[in-house]
Amino acid sequence: MKNILITILFFAAFTAKAQVIVPSWEEVYQFEAIADQADGGMVSIDITNQGADIAECNQKARSQALFTIIFKGYGKTNNASASTALTDLSNYNQNLDFYKSYLTSNTAGLAHVTKFQTNTSKPAGKIDKKTLKATTTVYISKTKLREDLQKLGYIKSAAQIAESMGITPSILIVPSEMWMKKAGYAKTEMTDLGEVTSFDYQNALNDPKMVIYNSIEGYLKPILQKNGFRIVSLSAIMANLAKERASNQARTNKAKEGDLDMLARVAQADIWLQVDLVEGNPTNQEIEYKLTLNGRDPILMEDVINGDPIRVKTANKNDLMGLIERNANQALDNFVPAVTSFFEKRDKDGISGKVQFLISENLELTFQDELTIDGETYQFAEIVDAMVSKKSTKYTTSGDQGEGNFRSYLVVIPAKMSNKLSGKVESNNFEKFARLVNTEIKTLLTDQPISAVVEAKGLGGVVVVFIPKK
After folding, report:
1. Residues 6+ apart with CB under 8 A from 286
2. CB neighbours of residue 453 within 10 Å
3. Do the beta carbons of residue 158 and residue 227 sit within 8 Å?
4. DSSP structure string for 236-284
5. Exposed, middle or buried, 400 (CB in 10 Å: 0-12/13-18/19+)?
6. Do the Cβ atoms of 47 and 65 come closer than 8 Å?
7. Which ranges in the chain are annotated with CATH 3.40.50?
8. Residue 378 and residue 236: Cα distance in Å, rounded?
9. Could you report the per-residue pLDDT of 29-46, keeping only the tens digit for each?
10. What CATH number labels 170-346?
11. Phi/psi at 447 (nearest 5 deg)?
12. CA–CA separation, 2 vs 293, rounded Å?
């Protein structure tokens, strides 16, 4: 009787184990983006997989293509631009039951597959008696897929992440530096601060060539606004930029802002969408343009999103703007998820920048001078170092510290902070950081005749000038 019972239990366990079904997207398969489709929000992907027959290969390919777009992303090919994953695999592992249903349901994920067909141009055939290999071309609306997952709350939009950091995300749409230089609206000259480049945006906006740029801005605005972004118009801030340029002349050399820093401070945008449109050499009566959308972090003044160039060719001038609109939408469809990743990284890693402390010529003090706090003697430099350390996540002294009247730091500060009065989370910046440091120093040195002026240098830096107390 015992032997029979053991045999039955073993058989039951073996049967249960045999019934474990591996989802098709966890099987081995190959994928390749084939082409960005006409509406700019859709892509076709080739999936090469295995199944009992062509029908099974086709059905698996639909789910595998969805999984690829959501969790893997794909590289650039001849007719398709690269695309980052909509989210990472930790999201999948945390929500297994949801995704197992979503990736196989005709009313959920599969609803965004608009078409699929066997790609007969690629090799296929039997692997063994029960298995064949085939390639299926799957057409998917990436835009609708992303919007659906955001609506369901399984992936966050850039706007949602930014809001958690206490900001309403904003984008400045601006011609690229390369475009400005090629068009003759950038001037580089040597100054006391070294080589400085200035940009004449006012005249650039009046250039007839900017008609295309203005059209692109018009195409991009409603899509970005739909994704929760506030749009900063370059033309709308020109008057304020001119005023800041005039005020900048009154600053000391070390406190002066560069042209792009000034633009960043006036625009107060969280990221710049740089439009680069290069006209090619027409051949056989064709018009050719190369369109690239890049994302610049206005704090670091570094390009953090490098879009793939998209070529626009036509023999009919009347088709040009329609083609540019389609390709601008296509480029933006890849740009928006990259912006989401940018905000996630900023929220996690904090904000990097530079803080400088200067001592006015009118103040009889150096950073090497010793000051007394609660009976203990410290160099002024030690006091400033300690307060910078206290209010930052990370800091290092930077460059030549001058002859006792200048100190510079590279610092990392949290991306968000709590407002002591309201208790609400709000965005952090270097001007707030410098004022907090200055308040701490003033609290320690109440008996010293020292005051301070805080001057922003763009969004990624600030100068604190110590002056005599009035």
Report:
1. 313, 314, 315
2. 13
3. yes
4. GGHHHHHHHHHHHTTS-GGGPPPHHHHHHHHH--SEEEEEEEEE----T
5. exposed
6. yes
7. 170-346
8. 49
9. 999 988 877 655 788 999
10. 3.40.50
11. -90, 5
12. 73
The DSSP bridge partners found for residue 273 are 173, 295
Alpha carbons 433 and 339: distance in angstroms, whole number: 25
Alpha-carbon distance of 54 to 61, in angstroms, equals 10
Q: How are beta strands 42-51 and 30-36 bridged, if at all?
A: antiparallel
CA gap 122, 133 in Å, rounded: 10
pLDDT at 16: 47
State pLDDT tens for residues 392-445: 999 898 765 656 788 999 999 998 888 777 778 888 888 888 888 988 888 888
Q: Which two tokens stand for residue 171?
A: 């984008």
Judge contact between 443 and 338, C-beta under 8 A. Answer: no
Sign of torsion over alpha carbons 224, 226, 228, 233: positive
How far is 321 from 212, CA to CA, in rounded Å? 8
Only one residue has tokens 């959308």, namely 293
Under DSSP, the state recorded for 70 is I
Distance of CA 6 to the CA centre of its chain: 60
pTM exceeds 0.70, yes or no = yes
What token pair was written down for 75?
A: 């590289």
Burial letters 345-358, b for 16+ CB under 10 A, else e:
ebbeebbbbbbbbb
Distance CA 266, CA 256 (A): 15
Residue with tokens 């972004």: 229
8 A C-beta contact, residue 140 and residue 237: no
